[in-house]
Write a structure and sequence with these properties.
The chain has 351 residues and is an alpha/beta fold. The chain folds into two domains: 97 residues, Alpha-Beta Complex (Aspartate Aminotransferase, domain 1), CATH 3.90.1150.10; 236 residues, Type I PLP-dependent aspartate aminotransferase-like (Major domain) (Aspartate Aminotransferase, domain 2). The protein has a seven-stranded mixed β-sheet, sandwiched between helices. The protein has a four-stranded antiparallel β-sheet with strand order 9-10-13-12. The chain is globular and about 60 Å long. Bound molecules: ligand TLP.
Length: 351
């Protein structure tokens, strides 16, 4: 069975152009700084972000881990949103590697305001661990791909810097944020010191993420990458795909966002199904409690019919992501399957 895979945008497979570029890539030993394709990718990523330097890392998790480490000292706090990826999905790397604890702030739409951050900033004292870093996730995965308004980001950047605090952006999907805002990525990341973005999600590369920021921090980050076992050798074969992701795939993300909206309005019309929020980008959460299903039983029934959508935290929630491997007609077919499963009772009989 060929599945319609809406579990994540991480499932995207490299395009034909990427595979060609990978085959033709000029390579060298990147631990010696001698891989020309990795060097080019790092220069390009820095230029796109308007920052001094960039570091190619195998995963987003490693990029965030190093990003947090270069800004902080052991025993500090990192302020982040309560459902942040760094807090919930990275095996506590900020504690394990950087020795920091998270100070979680709840924001219903995943977007922190400066006022909510300000309340949680702690100076060093006889009891409190001091704040070492502010982290923002843009787009915010578990809030449903929400996007920080530029003014909010600018205020967070300016006010944090006045207090001497750095800001790191988990921009795994920052190209989706930029597409939704209709501005270049440079503008989205201008207020923050460092940004991690992923090549392996909506941009379609098979692996790799970038950590981008001031040269002094990126140089330091290169050593942490080696410590973590992320010093790759002829990594140009991967970087070549990343370069295609940047030059060819970023421009088409609006299509994924339109497909997510299409799915949202289709799902909203299915009895027993409700959509959490109209997607601003490519992530959509929906609830199926009105069908009598749990998220897990709904997901299993979809899978039997060729559609992959994972259950999310909560009793009857699911998360789907659109991406270039699922076009509009596949979205239409997926909606038909959701309709069929929703119309069946949990025991598999139509209600
Ligand atoms: N997100 C994955 C899962 O880990 C949940 C997904 O399917 O969405 N930051 C954000 C905001 C992410 O969504 C992810 C991956 C990462 C960091 C980590 O990237 P990788 O998987 O490359 O370590």
């Amino acid at each position: 069975m060929t599945f319609i895979d809406l579990r994540s945008d991480t499932v995207t497979r490299p395009t034909a152009a990427m595979r060609r570029a990978m085959a033709d890539a000029e390579v060298g030993d990147d631990v010696y700084g001698e891989d020309p394709t990795v060097n080019l990718l790092e220069e390009r990523a820095a230029a796109i972000c308007g920052k001094e330097a960039a570091l190619f890392v195998p995963t987003g998790t490693m990029g965030n881990t190093i990003g947090i480490k270069v800004h902080t000292e052991h025993g500090q706090e990192v302020i982040c949103e309560s459902r942040a990826h760094i807090l919930n999905y990275e095996l506590s790397m900020m504690a394990w590697f950087a020795g920091c604890v998270a100070r979680a702030v709840v924001a219903e739409d995943g977007v922190l305001s400066w006022a909510s951050i300000r309340e949680q900033i702690r100076p060093l004292g006889p009891h409190a661990a001091p704040t070492g870093l502010i982290e923002v996730e843009n787009t915010h995965n578990m809030a449903g791909g929400t996007v920080y308004p530029l003014d909010t980001l600018r205020e967070i950047g300016e006010e944090s810097h006045k207090l001497g605090l750095p800001v790191h952006m988990d921009g795994a999907r920052v190209f989706n944020a930029a597409a939704a805002l209709g501005v270049p990525v440079t503008e989205v990341v201008a207020p923050v010191d460092t940004v991690m973005f992923c090549l392996s999600k909506a941009l379609g590369a098979p692996a790799g993420s970038m950590l981008v920021g001031p040269r002094r921090l990126i140089d330091k980050g290169r050593l942490y990458r080696k410590r973590l076992g992320g010093g790759m050798r002829q990594a140009g074969v991967l970087a070549a795909a990343g370069l295609i992701g940047l030059s060819e795939m970023a421009a088409r993300l609006g299509e994924d966002h339109e497909n997510a909206c299409f799915l949202a309005s289709g799902l909203a019309g299915i009895p027993g199904v409700s959509v959490e929020r109209t997607p601003a980008t490519n992530i959509l959460f929906f609830d199926v409690s009105g069908t009598g299903h749990t998220g897990a039983s709904f997901s299993a029934a979809l899978k039997e019919r060729g559609v992959l959508i994972n259950a999310a935290s909560g009793v009857a929630r699911l998360r789907l992501l659109t991406h270039f491997d699922v076009d509009r007609s596949a979205c239409e077919r997926a909606l038909g399957v959701v309709r069929e499963v929703a119309a069946m009772g949990v025991r598999g009989t139509y209600v």
